[in-house]
Amino acid sequence: MSTKESQQPKQSIGSTIMVVMMDVDPEHDEEFNRWYNDEHLPERLGIPGYVSARRFLLEEGQGVLRYLCIWELEDASPLQSQEYQAQNARPSQLRDRAHSYIRERMRGLYRQIYPAVGAFEDHSGFHPERAEG
């Protein structure tokens, strides 16, 4: 019982990811999310070298922050670009308010080490936990 390769969703990926985790004052979630989704994501993804971004909200866990964003980049160079510096320097009242709601923030930049290119994908279609008994 195998799954055809063409049925699997494909996603462009870069060789570098930036992981950003944050805790935000819950009473300001709506405004924080508006800034992140409507201003921050589109601006950053307009910078050459940014590939994609996905945001997540914690379902369960301990010792981790509630919001997570995974940014995929071609490499680390966009973080030193003039476009990046210009966006950081551009005034934004919404950004300033949203930043004031952040209680804790962690950020890490990771370079892919395996596989050398692309992503490891198991498309064998064998999932013992789903096997009929």
What is the terminal separation in angstroms?
14 Å
Q: Main beta sheet, described?
A: 4 strands, antiparallel
Estimate the global geometry from the Cα principal axes: globular
Order of helices and strands: EHEEHHE
Number of strands: 4
Number of helices: 3
Write a concise keyword list for the protein shown above:
alpha+beta, 133 residues, 4 strands, single chain, Alpha-Beta Plaits
Please provide a brief summary of the model:
It contains three helices and four strands. The protein has 133 residues and is of the alpha+beta class. 10% of the residues are buried.
Write a structural description.
The chain contains three helices and four strands, in the order βαββααβ. With 133 residues, it is an alpha+beta fold. It has one domain: Alpha-Beta Plaits, CATH 3.30.70.100. The chain has a four-stranded antiparallel sheet with strand order 2-3-1-4, with helices on one face. Helix 1 (29-45) crosses helix 3 (93-100). It is globular. The model has no long low-confidence stretch (mean pLDDT 88).
Secondary-structure blueprint:
Layout (H helix, E strand, L loop, with lengths): L15 E9 L4 H17 L4 E8 L9 E7 L8 H8 L3 H8 L1 E10 L22
Antiparallel strand pairs: 1-3, 1-4, 2-3
Helix pairs in contact: 1-3
